TrEMBL record:
Gene Ontology MF, one: amino-acid betaine transmembrane transporter activity
Recorded topology in the membrane: Multi-pass membrane protein
Originating species: Gilliamella intestini
Family named by the database record: Belongs to the drug/metabolite transporter (DMT) superfamily. Small multidrug resistance (SMR) (TC 2.A.7.1) family.
Transport in keyword set: yes
Domain of life according to the entry: Bacteria
PANTHER family referenced in this protein's UniProt entry, alphabetically: MULTIDRUG TRANSPORTER EMRE, SMR FAMILY PROTON-DEPENDENT DRUG EFFLUX TRANSPORTER SUGE
Subcellular location: Cell membrane
Transmembrane segments: 27-51, 58-79, 85-104
Protein name: Small multidrug resistance pump
Any one GO biological process: xenobiotic detoxification by transmembrane export across the plasma membrane
Keywords, alphabetical: Cell membrane, Membrane, Transmembrane, Transmembrane helix, Transport
Length: 110
């Protein structure tokens, strides 16, 4: 399987796990606690597979950068947490950085 596809699924699992972590209410809600544990486990497993061919610094930059933006958007849309202009601009820079890495980095393992 393509390493970047594995990385994509690792990001999705991490976003689901982090969203569930908030909803687990300090691991007092069993369903969301289980989703959190399973999601993080799947995320790290898939990330470990992606790291077979993608350099760790590049993979982690993409994984964390996209994860930050997606979690922030989910918190904004579904959990009604506010994002001010500075937060939106910062997330734009994060996404711009991920694009630069993928388009121009010679060490990105393409």
């Amino acid at each position: 399987m393509n390493s970047y596809l594995l990385l994509f699924f690792a990001i999705i699992c991490e976003v689901i796990a982090t969203s569930s972590l908030k909803l687990s209410d300090g691991f007092t809600n069993l369903i969301y606690s289980i989703i959190t544990i399973v999601g993080y486990s799947a995320s790290f497993y898939l990330l470990s597979l992606a790291l077979k061919t993608i350099p760790v610094g590049i993979a982690y930059a993409i994984w964390s950068g996209i994860g930050i933006v997606l979690i922030s958007l989910i918190a904004w849309i579904f959990l009604k947490q506010t994002l001010d202009l500075a937060a939106l601009v910062g997330m734009g820079f994060i996404m711009f950085g991920v694009v630069i890495i993928n388009l121009f980095s010679k060490v990105s393992g393409h």
